[in-house]
Amino acid sequence: MKTTELARHKRERLLMWFQLLPVMTVLTVLFGGALLLGIMQSLGFAPWFGVNTFPDSTYFRALWGSSSFWQSLWLTLYYAIAATVISLVLGILLAMAMVRTFPSKTLYKYLYKLPLMIPYTVGIALAVIMLGNGGMLSRLMAFGGFIDDPAQFPQILKTHMGWGIIAVYVWKQTPFVALTIYAVLLGVGRETEEAAAILGASKRQIFFQVTFPQIMPGIVSSTLIIFAFNIGAFEAPFILGGGFPDTLPVVAWRFFNDADYTLQLQGMATVVSIALIAGVILYTYLAIYRRYERRIGRH
To answer: What is the mean pLDDT of residues 156-163?
Structure first.
């Protein structure tokens, strides 16, 4: 009986892989081929430009040996980490609010999802309209008598502090984090929290010892996605950033748009560097999470 079920299970798995084979082949050729070509270009393979010194680490050495690269890397990581952390905190608070009953909860559950349906470029335009000097917020402050003129409003956009960039990321990504963690909270229910409260645990103890371990899978999955997006994002830093030093995606874009077309290889080295750095950070993050899971007895 068991042998028959095992054989049937193997046939079903083989059939599943056979059905996925066409899609997997296309994805492997398109994305795997593009990735391989990008790595080869960063190592000097570009015969269409009259350059073919493969394998050549000159472009990486020139990039990593520049102080501006490390300034751009710091700026890129600062925007990515700050936006991810703020979105995570706000997302957890939103998710925990939604599992409770309150008036107009149904309307609220639709309203908080609105940023998910709006493109990042629209969010950037809203940031310019709302937060710029001469924007709606500065004019409201002047109208309310808090400042004498809209030009006196603090500079939020076009600075390396990146408040405008971070605001756009947080506005867009907080609902995504909240939705992910809310789904986890619905799955685990509130019975464990209620039992802990009956046993005399404080709200702080309930959150850190009961709720937090339960929502960790949602936290990890959502922060992996938004951090990976933030570290490679181009539009918001390009439009709302403070100029030199730029974030690494903007640096890569400038290389690709330089009149000297051979600098595209330097741009590709920048893109590969972004992928390597993001990969190392995300791998380390996942390794720490797996260690945490083993420590609390989950595998």
So the answer is: 83
- The answer to the question of residue 24 being in a domain is no
Encode pLDDT of 67-104 as tens digits: 889 999 999 999 999 999 999 999 998 888 887 776 77
Q: Is 148 exposed, middle or buried (0-12, 13-18, 19+ CB in 10 A)?
A: exposed
Whether residue 21 lies inside any domain: the answer is no
Q: 51 in a domain, yes or no? A: no
* Host domain of residue 254: 66-295
SS3 299: coil
Q: How confident is the model at residue 299 (pLDDT cuts 50, 70, 90)?
A: low
Distance of CA 116 to the CA centre of its chain: 14
- pLDDT digit string, tens, across residues 242-262: 878 889 999 999 988 877 777
**CB atoms inside a 10 Å sphere around CB 104:** 8
pTM, rounded to two decimals: 0.82
DSSP letters along 103-163, please? TTHHHHHHHTTHHHHS-HHHHHHHHHHHHSTTSHHHHHHHHTTSSSSGGGS---SSSTT-H
Q: Between the CA atoms of 203, 209, 211 and 216, what dihedral angle is there, to the nearest 10 degrees?
A: 140
How far is residue 245 CA from its own chain's centroid? 21
| Residue 140, domain member (yes or no) | yes
Q: What is the CATH number of the domain that holds 220?
A: 1.10.3720.10
Q: How many residues does the chain have?
A: 299
Q: Which residues of 7-46 are buried (b: 16+ CB within 10 A; e: fewer)?
A: eeeeeeeeeeeeeeeeeeeeeeeeeeeeeeeebebbbbbb
Alpha-carbon dihedral sign for residues 39, 44, 47, 49: positive
- For 49-67, the pLDDT digits (tens) are 777 777 878 888 888 888 8
* Number of domains, the chain: 1
Please give the Cα distance from 164 to 157 (Å, whole number). Answer: 5
